[in-house]
Structures are given as structure tokens and as C-alpha cells.
Amino acid sequence: MSDLSAFPITKRWPAKHPELLQLYSLPTPNGVKVSIMLEEIGLPYEVHLVDFGKDDQKTAEFLSLNPNGKIPAILDPNGPGGRPLALFESGAILQYLAEKTGKLLSQDAARRYQTIQWVHFQMGGIGPMFGQVGFFHKFDGKDFEDKRPRDRYVAEAKRLLGVMETHLSGRQWFMDDDYTIADISMLGWVRNLIGFYGAGDLVEFTQFKSVGAWLERGLARPAVQRGLKIPQRL
Q1: What are the strands, taking DSSP E only, across 17-153?
Q2: What's the CATH number for 109-222?
Q3: Which of 18, 28, 154, 216 sits between 20 and 30 A of 128, alpha carbons compared?
Q4: Model pLDDT for residues 152-207, shown as the tens digit of each residue
Q5: 8-103: CATH, from 3.40.50.2300, 2.60.40.10, 3.40.30.10, 3.30.70.2750
Q6: If DSSP codes are grouped into helix, strand and coil, which group holds residue 101?
């Protein structure tokens, strides 16, 4: 039996199955990256809901795992060398799980780094910029009289969608015929932009035909559909 008692997070979220990878998350665009990945690779795990409504992410127990106070985070009892590994940042977790299982990341060095570059593209661009569009279009920012901040982020979101469109033209996935962690990193964000944020018309999403077709292919995957609902909100 794995012993995770040295990790304070297990005091607030006890592990019923400590031999399994522990996922601490919420079904947001960043959170579902890891749940989708886990469903795709078939690695058994136990999930714990980090409830932002209760400020779970600000508790000492959660901050002991992720000092940045963001989801997702994992605790793998079977980390490198057979020792437990605590890890945060969704991009790092995707890469770790791909390397751990040998799935969804090429073993060829060139293709491996080409895949990772698209994950960084999502982390540095797609996530932050789409999130700002959501703030200024759906949340508190929508009430600002000055629309210049919103327009700035809308323009950048459209530019990024254009980058995706150009690359995906004639391709099934970001790495040609290979579905990888690059696709997983972006599916939830594009879905959120036009769905939950309701910004499809704002960014003129229908003009990005290749992105739309890629999104449909991704959302049609059973593992993606399962991962989008994990963990269940209370």
C-alpha cells in the first residue's frame, strides 16, 4: 500500500486508493486537460474536486501541493524511481504523463519537440488570451465602458486562431495524423471560447474552418467527452 501521509494535501482530500495517481482539479479548460489525458491513456486515477466556491485552492493543504494556487495538480505515488511525485502546471503534467506511459508524445526527438512547442503555444498564448476574452465578454469586464481592453484581447484571440487555422489546414491534428498532447492542451480552450464564453461571433469563429473541423474531431472522441466532465461539480 502506498503511503502518501507525508503530503499535507491528503489531510484535506484523503486518498481512498493511495496506490493510484491522485488528481486535484475542476472542470475548467486547464483542469480538463489532465482528466482528458488520463482518460485517453487509460491510467487509473482518483479524482478530487477543488471547489473554487469554497476557496479550496487557497487552503494551506492545496498550496502545499501547488504554491501558485491553481488547478490542476497531481500526486503520483508511482513517480520516477518509484517515489511519490507532486506536480502542478497542466502543460508539465501532460508531458509527464505522456513520458510516463509512452503515449501521445512521439519518441522521435524532432517530432517530440515539435509537439511540445505547440503545448507551449497554448500555455503562453491560447489560454491567457482566450481567458481575457472571457473576462471582458462574459464576466465583470463586460461592464467596463472602455472597450479597448476587450478589443485588444479579441484581436489577439483572432490572430492566434489564425495561426491555428494555417497550421491545421490539410491536417487532422496538430501533428499531422497523430493525435497528441498538443491537441489535448487546446481542445478545452477553444470549446470554452465559443461555448461557455459565448464569444464565437465576437472572434468570427466561423471563418476558421480548419479549427472548427479539428474541434469537432476532438470533441467526438469518447475519452474527451468523459474528461470534460471530470471531476463532477457539486
Answers
A1: 21-25, 45-49, 73-76, 85-88
A2: 1.20.1050.10
A3: 216
A4: 999 999 999 999 999 999 999 999 999 999 999 999 999 999 999 999 999 999 99
A5: 3.40.30.10
A6: helix
